[in-house]
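Review form for a predicted model. The reviewer records the input and the model, then writes brief findings.
Reviewer: anonymous (R2)
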Amino acid sequence: MYVAFDEIEDNARVWIYQADRKLSDTEAEKLENEAKVFTEQWAAHGTGLMASAKVFHHQFLILTVDESQHGASGCSIDSSVAFIRNVEQQYGINFFDRNKVAFLLNEEIYLESIQNLKNKIEKGDIASDTLTFNNLVATKGEMKEKWVSPAQNTWLARYF
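Model under review:
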């Protein structure tokens, strides 16, 4: 059962999918609508999940499940991955490239490959206070507090 993102509980589990390119306005709107349709029918062992989906910054698709109602199972998670894979083909986009880190620079999302991070930091392109996206947050509450943090407060701290 779909629940508006703002209404789903803070303890809801999140999955953050980072696109390898910025979505257009049309793509973002269409993707969010498709994700809402998916979450409306998303189920675990035949029981509908209280779930939500939202596109952020034209770059991230976030799925959530309130597991206090009913937990996501391996099969339900597999179905969400299948949904994402289908979206990738439809939009010509990659949501599973873990070799790029997203930063927020001048209100724009900037992606940098992990291999180039040290160089970009040494050149000053990425500073200790540059906002960085931590796509490994586990809950909506954690997402609200820690998804976007200064680089020095993330695993990148070792470079400063």
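Findings: The beta strands are 13-18, 43-44, 47-48, 51-56, 60-65, 100-105, 108-113, 131-133, 148-150.
Further findings: The first strand starts at residue 13 and ends at 18.
Recommendation: see findings above.
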